[in-house]
Amino acid sequence: MKYSIATVSLGGTLPEKLAAIAAAGFEGVEIFEADVLANEGTPATIGAMVRDLGLEIVAFQPFRDFEGMPEPQRSRGFERAKRKFALMNELGAGSILVCSNVSPLSLGGIDRAADDLRELGGIAEGFGINVGFEALAWGRHVSDYRDAWEIVRRADHDRVGLILDSWHMLARGLAPDAIRSIPADRITFVQLADAPAMDMDLLQWSRHFRNFPGQGDLPVNAFMEAVIATGYDGWLSHEIFNDRFRMASPRRIAEDGERSLIWLEDQVRPGGLPPRATPEAVEWIEFAVSETEAAELERVFRGLGFALTGRHRSKQVTRYSQGAVNLVINTEPEGLAHSQQLVHGASVAAVGIRVGDAKAALRRAEDLRMTAFRQPVGPGELDIPAVRGVGGALVYFTDARSDLGRVWEIEFEPTGAPHSDRLTRIDHIAQSMSPDEMLSWRLFYLSLFDFETTPLIDVVDPAGIVESMALQDADRNLRICLNASTSGRTLSSRFLSEYFGAGVQHIAFATGDIFAAARAIREAGLETLPIPENYYDDLEARVTLEPEVIDAMRALGILYDEDGEGRYFQVYTRAFQERFFFEIVQRDGYGGFGAQNAPIRLAAQARLARPAAMPRL
Ligand code: MG
Ligand code: MG
């Protein structure tokens, strides 16, 4: 299908929006009337600008409060339409979006509306224009696409068709099944928008919180399946009203929009792209640090029970291992890790994910218009497929089917064996980002990997609210938590400013015995995050753990949460140069991430933070 987006979805001036839309790969654009009115160019020069960018004007919109009016408003509506049609001829726009009337003056009546649209079709014909009619969820008399279709059917004019908008039907909880009996050639075009599940007024929800399919909770797939069932093969056009989108870079939002459509079409009509990659494991996490920082980081790794197990054959890169966890320290004086380190300071520069087929994962990423990363490959080195992820850090793909599965053997000189398997695997990786990036990265991960998402939750930080969501595969081989702060003063946002951008904020290791693990790291001289007495007093009153267990937790700074299915224990290291920290978790059938304890952890970290980094009021 052909992809389009409405200019109202993006921030910036009209030329900025159009440039972003063309650069993202769209073929068409819906021009919002206000964007024309606010531009100094004539409609003809705007039209030329659109076509010079290789874009087609899919529609001019919106045309409001037209059908079912009494006189004199009815006649005025037709006069208004003629002026718009003349403007559209100058612009070079072929279709107009007429949305259902919200005026208290409108009279209702299916046949009255059909008569009005038939007459409008006759006028539109003279201008060579098509009229598309859309039911707004809050339309005065027409708020259901099935009624809009009945009006279009009775209007029975070649120039009058139906516009289907996923938001307006799904937000009202209307089943999209009836779309299947609409003839494809009567559908003018299709508009798409998703939204997070929210209990609020339809108009407010629509105007401020829409987002791209893949970013929300509406059953957009079912909508698309019904559209495809009709045989429709025309324009798919995003129409997103979202304050954060309009404040963000139009480039990034347009790229997200294109990715969303590629993802959605692949969801409902698979086979065009390689399938979503199924994560099998986190193969490694790579830290970019200076040589001085490396010594300190090695001390932390050893304290956590990791052993030096390899040195890269040609680079200043070492491998630390324990259980199935591999941590890599990169102190190369050049290359991507070095530039990451220069920009971000000590940071996670890459995560290696084992999937079924690494090359196919890269092809999928490129088909989704993600940025592949390529670097010169030295003699005896593997060319490991990679894309740019959060904060510019890399996501590497590795697999067991190719030589990539032998990366340690091929690229590393062994230096010894792990001496502990107390930490068994990576349980989850938490990344911090600004709130306006969160939906972008959700879509990035969801379109690339075979992931499920958890609903967005709010976590209380001493200085504000942190929004948090998780993405994870069905087998829980890879769990990624995304955190974003809406306040400039929370630890999560302070992490962003300290770190100069988004990135990995913490890494959680899984263990089968958290008490032994916590004792071992203390004995090794690593400090854990101190947790206040009050926490344990409250725990005694709240949960059914034995008093001895709570005493042991108190002594070791272990936190606890439980859900219907299980129990969860957590302990945190102190932050490494206030940039990132480690967590050890024991999950006994528990499915979450200890969100309940996050405020306790954040407050404890805030108490330890340097005074200079404390909130500035
Ligand atoms: Mg619409
Ligand atoms: Mg965690």
Task: Provide structural commentary.
By secondary structure, the protein is of the alpha/beta class. The chain folds into 3 domains: 2-268, Divalent-metal-dependent TIM barrel enzymes (TIM Barrel, Alpha-Beta Barrel); 281-414, 2,3-Dihydroxybiphenyl 1,2-Dioxygenase, domain 1 (Roll), CATH 3.10.180.10; 423-608, 2,3-Dihydroxybiphenyl 1,2-Dioxygenase, domain 1 (Roll). The protein is 36% helix and 24% strand. It is built from 21 helices and 25 strands. The strands form 3 sheets. Strands 17, 18, 19, 20, 21, 22, 23, 24 and 25 form a 9-stranded mixed beta sheet that branches. Helix 3 (43-52) crosses helix 4, helix 5 packs across helix 6 (145-155) and helix 11 (250-268) runs parallel beside helix 16 (435-448). The chain is elongated, with a radius of gyration of 28 Å. Residues 612-617 have low confidence and may be disordered. The site of one magnesium ion has 4 residues, from loops. One magnesium ion (MG) binds at residues 428, 430, 506, 508, 583, 593.
Question: What is the gist of this entry?
Answer:
The chain contains 21 helices and 25 strands. The chain has 3 domains: 267 residues, TIM Barrel; 134 residues, 2,3-Dihydroxybiphenyl 1,2-Dioxygenase, domain 1, CATH 3.10.180; 186 residues, 2,3-Dihydroxybiphenyl 1,2-Dioxygenase, domain 1 (Roll), CATH 3.10.180.10.
